[in-house]
Amino acid sequence: MPAVVYAIPAFVLLVAVEALSYRFLPDDDERGYALRDTVTSMSMGAGSQVIAAPWKVVTVLVYAAAFTVAPWHLSPSSGWTWVLLFFAEDLAYYAFHRAHHRVRVLWASHVVHHSSVRFNLSTALRQSWTPMTGLPFWLPLALLGIPPWMILLEQAVSLAYQFFLHTERVDKLWRPVEAFFNTPSHHRVHHGSNNVYLDRNYGGILIVWDRLFRTFEPEGERVVYGLTKNIGTHNPLRVAFHEFAAAWRDVRTARRWRDRAGYLFGPPGWAPRAEG
Length: 276
Prior knowledge:
This protein has 11 helices and no strands. The protein is an all-alpha fold. It is globular, with a radius of gyration of 19 Å. The termini are far apart. GO terms for molecular function: glyceryl-ether monooxygenase activity; iron ion binding. It is a multi-pass membrane protein.
């Protein structure tokens, strides 16, 4: 069972606490909660855990096979192994996250998480039902000789940390924290559909990768949450698969194979140039 499952009761309780905070301490500048939106986010989260359970078995087997053929095995009893794991896992998450924004067939999976026009702790639970797209990004850690159980544990730690990023109730933090760590302010930018905020702040726990690879954007103008073209539905099936359906329609109507490839592997919004 994925380690993050044990944190679900705490997640649900904190969602309820934050929702109540809007009732007793309302803020006109914050979107807060809406019942249908929250139910959809919860439904997506529950569905993702049901689907992730059997897929986790496949993941463990693949990581174990890679670990077996690794040229060396790092010891869990060494503090340096944990330090390496922390930075390597966070970099793997950055690569995973950036790819899922820049390759349409991967975006079709990740778009679920960005489909709400609100931003609160329940948004963190709005997860994809196609978790298999993430496996290749963490596989190198097993090939480095890091035990699979350590990789899975650090993934759970990262996901738990990121849960707390999904809130408008926390303003900017102490400047050194904002400089090195992902914070609610940085992650609000990531969920923005404003042009200046698109494809920015991919970090998991750390924000240093965004600064290093020039994908960082500080929070400035008010964030408009959601997609550039919102889907306008609370149906979990449509939320989960609407972009896969749209990509298939584009591929089916394309005239050339290179256009079909572009619709799948180009960035979201890619379209072939008009001939002539």
